[in-house]
């Protein structure tokens, strides 16, 4: 079991669990998944989720606007 972050065409990020990388690729290719926020099936895999032993994950990118844009317009987490 591995967790990947997926990003839809509108920039919504969400995590999905897959058996492995191939399972992830297959489901993306088959459009078997959709964004829970907007229902878009245009998904791309984001940075690998920090589900792998021990090492601290790199900090998530943050919105460059002061205080964050708050609406996800920049596609980054606030
Ligand atoms: Zn979306």
Protein traits:
78 residues, 3-stranded antiparallel sheet, 24% strand
Summarize this entry quickly.
This protein is α+β, with helices and mostly antiparallel strands.
Describe this structure in words.
This protein has a domain at 2-47. The chain contains one helix and three strands, in the order ββαβ. It has one helix at 21-29, and strands spanning 2-8, 13-18, 43-48. The chain has a three-stranded antiparallel sheet with strand order 2-1-3. β1 and β2 (13-18) form a beta hairpin. The longest helix has 9 residues, at 21-29. Zinc ion binds at residues 8, 10, 12, 35, 37-38, 40.
Structural class by SSE content: alpha+beta
Q: State which percent range the strand residues make up.
A: 15-25%
H/I helix tally: 1
Strands of the largest sheet, in order across it?
Answer: 2-1-3
Report the major sheet: 3 strands, antiparallel
Radius of gyration: 13 Å
End-to-end gap: 28 Å
Tell how many strands the DSSP assignment holds. Answer: 3
What's the helix-strand series? EEHE
Give the overall average pLDDT: 82
Overall body shape: globular
Amount of helix = 10-25%
- What molecules are bound to this protein? zinc ion
Low-confidence stretches: none
